[in-house]
Amino acid sequence: MRTFSFGGGVQSMAILVLASQNKVHYDQYLFCNVGEDSENPKTLDYFKEVALPFARINRLELLELYKYRKGERETIYQRIMTTPRSIPIPARMSNGAPGHRACTSDFKIRVVAHWQKQHGATKDNPAITGIGFSLDEFDRARNDSGFDYQILEYPLLNFRITRMDCINIIKSSNLPVPEKSSCYFCPFHSATEWIRQRNSTPELFQKSVAVEKHIFEKREKLLKDRMYLHPHCKPLEIAVGEQPTLFDEKEIGCTSGYCFL
Fold it and tell me: What is the CATH number of the domain that holds 160?
């Protein structure tokens, strides 16, 4: 079994284009939908309007997976808003360190691994899992997936393909270039991305503000310090007025490869 973790971003779409050209091969391309109330709406629109039709035309099996809990679908937003103690996203503590990150693990990594196991992956017959790190992200690659029935591989690294190469690959097929995929309230957004969200999609920014305020309230009830979505460790409504730095723009927090790509 050969599967590719399709994140809905630039690198993943480039892999889909390369697959249509028979330059890479996977049996399935697995997209984990973490929730229409959680994911960047433009990522979901791109998946439905561009990626899925492209895959169908080229006879590539692009599947949409979901997280279920006790038989009911669960989203990251729902978990944030309904669990009394847990904060599943890596909101930042006052010292800047990200908190516990259960979002990627529970809603993407484990969902993919569960699907693979359901479809025959075993320790003796492990599933090959492609991750879309490009050459400029080679330091994010790792060998151990955490599952004895899963082996990771990095096709873009093997071909020495950069993110800019991925953009050119997508454009060469006359396809629009997707935005970076992530939850709209992701604490790994750079300061520049938060400003962009406030200016281009103010309604989405206000939703992010509401999520952060809920986290503030939850932490207050637990008699704990605030945790923030912005890298400056200030409330979003205040922090987005500050000038982003070069460090803010280049900051990368999530190294799993299941988000952003």
Answer: 3.40.50.620
